[in-house]
Amino acid sequence: MTDNETQPEDQVGGRVAGLLLAAGGGRRLGGRPKALLEHRGHLLVEHAVGVLRAAGCARVHVVLGARAGDVRARAALDGCVLVDNPDWEQGMGSSLRAGLASLTGTGARAALVSLVDQPGIGAEATARVRAGYRDETSLVSAAYAGRRGHPVLLGAAHWAGIASTATGDRGARAYLGEHEAEIALVECGDVARPYDIDTEADLVHLE
Q1: With contact defined as beta carbons under 8 Å apart, do 113 and 82 qualify?
Q2: How many CB atoms lie within 10 A of CB 2?
Q3: pTM of the prediction?
Q4: Bridge partners for 110 per DSSP
Q5: Is the pLDDT of residue 154 over 50?
Q6: Residue 57 CA from chain centroid, whole number
Q7: What band does 13 get if pLDDT is binned at 50, 70 and 90?
Q8: What are phi and psi of 186, to 5 degrees?
Q9: Which residues contact 82 (CB under 8 A, 6 or more apart)?
Q10: What digits encode the pLDDT tens for the residues 39-87?
């Protein structure tokens, strides 16, 4: 892990850390890691970090997996904490566990979690979810026509419970399902499109 501690963090920015899951190998894209796809003149991982920063996250942790060395060499991720997930092939759950573990002891009281393959979700939607933070018990999720999606804000009081149930590609889904009544939904369908870049057909969304 590499960490640059010199960047300024405002009070709220320090409490809510951005957590970008960018470890996937792009199996349905012929083995092209999604972090290394290009969008609007930048690698997708750079674009996603920029969204989190524009939404107000002073600290951003990025979980890497597939071709992590290439991502480190090619992507401009200055100031980010880069977290290697050697178990990335086990699915998104392992990356979420690695990312939350990396935030322990940083002073962050919530993680604003986004996925590298959703470039249709920009800073405005991400900032709306971040604004739902109240304290370390907060659970906040973007919603699209009332249906829960990304990004999600996970208060630190929930991290241990989430880590214990984050397996395969389920991520925090099981935990959030058990705590549905505690989740504040923030409608974002008017400002974001929650598509995923999963297959060759989805590459049409990249610009």
Answers
A1: no
A2: 10
A3: 0.92
A4: 16, 155
A5: yes
A6: 12
A7: low
A8: -120, 110
A9: 1, 2, 61, 62, 64, 72
A10: 999 999 999 999 999 999 999 999 999 999 999 999 999 999 999 999 9
